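Good morning C.,

I know you're traveling, so I'll keep this short. The sequence:
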Amino acid sequence: MIEATRLSSFRLAGAALAAALAFGTGPAAAADPKLDPVPLIEGWLLPRYDALAAATTAQAKAWAAFCPAPSAAGVAPLKEAYGKAADAWNAVEFVTFGPITLSLRADRISFFPDRRNGISRGLSEIIADSDPTRLAPERFAQSSAAVQGLPALERLLYEEGAAEALVAGPEAARRCALGTAIANNLATITGEIRTAWGDKSSGVLGAIVSGKGDPALFPDVGALPGMILTDLSGAYQRVTDTKLLPVLGASPADAKPLVADSWRSGRSGRVAANMIRSADALLVAVGAQMPSRPQYVVTKAATAADAAADKLPADIGLDPSFAATPEAPSEARLHGIEASPAGPLAVAVGRRPGRIALVFDRRKGGVLASFGPGEGRVFSGHGRFTADGRLFLTNEIERPADGVRVMGHGVVAVRAVDGGFAIRDEWGSGGDGPHDLMRSGAALVIANGGIEPNTPEARDAEVTGSGITLVDPATGAVRGEGRLSPDLASLSLRHLARDGNGGTVVAAQDLLKDGEARPLLFRIAADGALTPFDAPDDAWRALRGYVGSVAYDPSGRFVACATPRGNQVAVWQADGRYIGAVPLTDGCGLAAGAEAGTFVAASGYGEVIVVKAAPEGVAITARRTGGPRYDNHMVRIG
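The tokens, ready to paste straight into the viewer:
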């Protein structure tokens, strides 16, 4: 997270400016000849507008080169050109005087904040409309400001699946045409701004030098120093008030990383840093026109703010320990992940009704092999290595005849790892619709989910037929069973977690949507008997009938559940006492953290958080945003 000292450095720069203004250079003394605006415009502002015009022109050329022959490799230059244009814009986005104020140019370059999702709605509407005249330069310039600028381009390049949609698919041509229209529009706007400024003998700057001013922009040339100083002091305030504080919140639990500027491209911290560095350069230029003492104060403050900006992460809220690295791309949607205890192999099993499981090297990356379910069956999403890593067990479901709305019987397929994961034995799972399985203590625990909620089989059903089966891990012989009480018959037992000392829990999902508060977390006894954990009714209801993942912390003292429908991670003591919950929108992936009392959780919006639990409460202690859209499960290795 951004430390308070960095925010203080930014505010210090603003305070130094205010102190310097007391020497007679502030807006109240705007006509004071001690501050000459011409060197500031000529030496600081215009070179930055030159850079912006050049970057947007280069970006337009990149799109023109890409669209005639789109390719996956060609997307990277588009992203690079976008980043350079966005960097150049950040350097001047706090400037509110001059030609930028005409024709809504600032909003058209960067429509931020977008409080009503106007950008995404506008882009979707244009993409769906095949009329080519909408993208003609004159007409496009009259479109909503939301779709004309850098944030719109960011979505076309960085949203989930957007890069692929530029290369192939039914929308590829239209998306390319739209990206080209936006890039050309940006080049036109920034070119108009720079042309309007002119030089000492022409344009707006020429009018300032002559003392005549501009009737629309600077009717009183003497007010210009005050405008410059107001924008300069406002730059630091804008960074803290619009780029940092709304994102960070009062605490990590209050953070809102998805309101950050440029979060999709992972640039939200860079935006703030770019603005600070540019404002610091202007501050130093202003200080150069001051007496030695205030000049020293200003320069020192600018140096401190620069140093603070250098320490900002690329993405606000970023914890560098949770960077995401793609290891095994898959066209199919996978579900549970299991790492071998005896080497670098890991297996990701397809989500029900899964047809594939991928074997990959978790150290070097890359898919090594794949395998499918047994004849007439589908994967249910989970598999486990045996303790020696020689066998891999998969839960599989027999497919019923077409049109028959029942969950199939469960089979545990025992696969030889060194035999290409070929099936060498098969055991009954002890029920229908098995989902998770896990060795805990002396038994292999199988969660037979029965009828899975939110599936066609669940329509009009009120009883899942779910249960727990304990089997001998060597022979598959049944050693125990656990069944839910009749008042909990609508629950489907799905995900398992163990503490390493024989303690096992199972989390459930509810078939019914009747608003009743039913427990969704249970302790499994050595004979399979189920005991519900405790929580207030409101806490159970807050899970929205759905737990997607469950995990113990490293100490085994705490258990957490993640619910993408309830948008939270809830935590209990292992003895069943409810502690509390923290928010995580669309959060499902969950695993033990690095330290006792901690968990790591991930969301479908690319967030990763660290959750700290103690008997007195639970809190978020670190957060990273801007990652891929994480799916159901994660596993800690090592």
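Safe travels,
E.
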